[in-house]
């Protein structure tokens, strides 16, 4: 694997996202979007101008955060944030979840 | 200088850099359970164990408790955030 | 100077070290709270507590009104070993300078 030059390591992929908006889906009903400033080998991440979206019993709660260190422990999926607005994201995630189930 | 405002020149800021830059500052710590702790960050370690001062405990946005000092075990931590924060409840 | 160094909080666990032989508050998973005297601890936050008061909070749903009823059960335990992985938060007593 190591001598295959076309192989991109997962962490290299994340490294290429530094400076651009990244969409993080956590285990459980929570997502975050914001520019990635840095990360470490555990994929703990520093994010900026974060929009956090969580599903609670009372409905959807949006939280704005200045700068955060996100614990890598509960991260499920990372996606470079190209096109989706937060509203649409739920639909995307639903699709992803259904795909994972089948 | 830890330039927090410069967004144009996006320099890398690793978790270690971030932790160094927030010691002694007001922070919000969110746990996996959804509970928030707001207070002054005294110190932390590599496990994300956190020592905080003047800690306030918020459950569903409501103040539930206050602690002079508090130790939070790192495995419960979802994120540590600098304190500027606004809340907007959506439908 | 030496005593000043002793009482300095350089890492989070120092906060626990400074609470030895004091009564502390411990918040545990599954809505359990403990108050007791801290006899010993380790890096996992396994702890030995003495003269412990345990409060367990449960939520019950009223059959008719569907209201949530918070019920807390108290008990005292003379000596207790707490496994560290259940610990969420530890708060020492207010220290005076």
TrEMBL record, chain A:
Query: Taxonomically, which superkingdom?
Result: Eukaryota
GO annotations of cellular component type? Lsm1-7-Pat1 complex; spliceosomal complex; U4/U6 x U5 tri-snRNP complex; U6 snRNP
A Gene Ontology biological process term: mRNA splicing, via spliceosome
> Where in the cell?
Nucleus
PROSITE patterns xrefs: SM (PS52002)
Keyword field: Acetylation, mRNA processing, mRNA splicing, Nucleus, Ribonucleoprotein, RNA-binding, Spliceosome
UniProt lists the family membership as follows: Belongs to the snRNP Sm proteins family.
Record-given protein name: U6 snRNA-associated Sm-like protein LSm5
Q: Which organism is it from?
A: Cephalotus follicularis
At the highest ranks, the source species' classification is: Eukaryota, Viridiplantae, Streptophyta, Embryophyta, Tracheophyta
Protein's gene: LSM5
From TrEMBL, chain B:
InterPro entries, per this entry? Answer: Lsm6/sSmF, LSM_dom_sf, Sm, Sm_dom_euk/arc
Please provide one cellular component term from the Gene Ontology annotations of this protein.
U4/U6 x U5 tri-snRNP complex
The record's subcellular locations are: Cytoplasm; Nucleus
Q: Name one Pfam family in it.
A: LSM
The record's section on SUPFAM superfamilies has: Sm-like ribonucleoproteins
Give GO terms: molecular function aspect only: RNA binding
Q: Is Cytoplasm among the key words of this record?
A: yes
UniProt-recorded name of the protein: LSM domain-containing protein
The organism named in the record is Cephalotus follicularis (Albany pitcher plant)
TrEMBL record, chain C:
Q: Where in the cell is it found?
A: Nucleus
Q: Which InterPro entries match?
A: Lsm3, LSM_dom_sf, Sm, Sm-like_LSM3, Sm_dom_euk/arc
Q: Name one GO biological process term.
A: mRNA splicing, via spliceosome
Enumerate the spans annotated as Sm domain: 11-96
Give the range the annotation lists for the signal sequence. none
Spell out the family assignment given in the record's similarity comment.
Belongs to the snRNP Sm proteins family.
Q: What is this protein called?
A: LSM domain-containing protein
Which species is listed as the source?
Answer: Cephalotus follicularis (Albany pitcher plant)
């Amino acid at each position: 694997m190591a001598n295959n030059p076309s192989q991109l390591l997962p962490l290299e992929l994340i490294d290429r996202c530094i400076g651009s908006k990244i969409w993080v889906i956590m285990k459980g009903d929570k997502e975050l979007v914001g520019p990635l400033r840095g990360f470490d080998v555990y994929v703990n991440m520093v994010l900026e101008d974060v929009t956090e979206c969580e599903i609670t019993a009372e409905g959807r709660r949006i939280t704005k955060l200045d700068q955060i260190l996100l614990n890598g422990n509960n991260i499920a999926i990372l996606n470079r944030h190209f096109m989706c607005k937060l509203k649409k994201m739920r639909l995307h995630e639903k699709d992803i979840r259904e795909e994972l189930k089948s | 200088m830890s330039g927090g405002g410069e967004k144009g020149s996006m320099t890398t800021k690793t978790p270690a850099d971030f932790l160094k830059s927030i010691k002694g500052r007001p922070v919000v710590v969110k746990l996996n359970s959804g509970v928030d702790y707001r207070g002054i960050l005294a110190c932390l370690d590599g496990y994300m164990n956190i020592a905080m001062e003047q800690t306030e405990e918020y459950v569903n946005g409501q103040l539930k408790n206050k602690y002079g000092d508090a130790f939070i075990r790192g495995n419960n931590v979802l994120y540590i955030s600098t304190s500027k924060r606004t809340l907007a409840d959506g439908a | 100077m030496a005593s000043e160094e002793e009482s300095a909080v350089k890492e989070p666990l120092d906060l626990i070290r400074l609470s030895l032989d004091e009564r502390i508050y411990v918040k545990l998973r599954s809505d359990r709270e403990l108050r007791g005297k801290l006899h010993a601890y380790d890096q996992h936050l396994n702890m030995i507590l003495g003269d412990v008061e345990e409060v367990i909070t449960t939520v019950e749903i009223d059959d008719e009104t569907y209201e949530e009823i918070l019920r807390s059960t108290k008990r005292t335990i003379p000596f207790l070993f707490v496994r560290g992985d259940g610990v969420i938060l530890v708060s020492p007593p207010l220290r005076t300078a």
